[in-house]
Write a structure and sequence with these properties.
This protein is mainly β. The chain has strands at residues 2-5, 9-11, 16-18, 23-26, 31-34, 40-42, 48-51, 54-57, 63-65, 76-79, 84-87, 92-96, 102-105, 108-111, 115-119, 127-132, 135-138, 143-145, 150-155, 158-168, 173-178, 181-187, 194-196, 201-203, 205-207, 214-216, 223-225, 232-234, 241-243, 250-252, 259-261, 268-271, 281-283, 293-296, 308-309, 315-317, 328-331, 336-339, 350-355, 366-368. The chain has a 24-stranded mixed β-sheet that branches. The chain has a 16-stranded mixed β-sheet with strand order 1-4-7-10-13-16-19-21-23-26-28-30-32-34-40-35, with no helix packed on it. The radius of gyration is 26 Å and the shape is elongated.
Length: 369
Amino acid sequence: MAMLFPQSITSAGITVNLGTVDSVFVARDVFIASTANRAISGTGSNHKVWIDGVVASKDYLTVNLGDLGSVDNANLVEIGSSGQVRQFGNTAGVSFYSFNSTLKNAGLISAPGGYGVWVLGENPATTSTIINSGTITSSNYSVDVYSTETVVLNNSGTIVSSTRSYSSSNTSVDKITNTGLMVGDIYLGVGKDSYNGAGGRVTGWVYGQAGEDTITGGSENNWFNGGSENDTLRGNGGHDTLLGEAGSDTLSGGLGRDMLWGGLGGDHFIFDAPVLAASRDTIYDFSRAQGDKIHLDNAFLKKVGANGSLKAAAFTLGKKAADAADRIIYDKATGKLFYDSDGSGAAAQIHFATLANKVALSQVDFKVI
């Protein structure tokens, strides 16, 4: 049954209690509130809640659908551009104790003392989706996931937290696409997760944590920490800080002056952007003993050679090329790494990277891709 609320209601109990597969529409300028319980609550599955007005609660979950995360499913909350969900306690504005759930927010979810959204589905074969073009703001975690599902967040709006804008703390596979703004750290938890911020901005660290994660930045400065397994970190534009941590990680700073730490394991430092002095990266912990390699993309270092191992004749030690065949020059005294497109010819060499630990290098430490 669909329920329409064209008039405001306030109560001390559950203000709107949905029956089996009930749906509810809160019209513009309507205020639905509870002073001591949930404003809208629906146990079970297949509930739909559309909000163009204001829904608020003080002490309990403001909008809650489902009560058994492994059984209840297919619940929907859609908040229009004029809609607001306000949580004035320390719980969540919108919560799903169900799998295969959907939140579409073009309005406002506000929880100044609590959490914006809770996702608590328990079904590894299903996906819950959050599409945010509005604003989600909280003092705790703005999107808090404790799920075994795949959880997809597509953010083109604003998600703000004084701690974590997104936090995953179970085995969910988290897939974030951010073309908007996320303020606060992002924790991806356990699973083969991804964060793609190529069209957006994040203020805070992105932590891959456990699992083989792929983390991609945008044009701003990014701070990425891969975590405990084999991760891929790509800074793209901006002056980025990339920490692979444990595992055999792949780090690509892209444009900008980036700071790269591989951590434990055999890591791959990728140079696959235009070779510019203004985009000089620093590698802090290169270790041949751990199996680290420097990869040179011949789409950008055009004269470095064909794919495969760097030829011995293309590498030299010193401050400049010794002959016409030299392409990569390493000054161990300073840690500076240069590219020279014509060796001892007239073209100027470019200082494109620095090895902060000034470790010994030879051609075996390089691979052309």
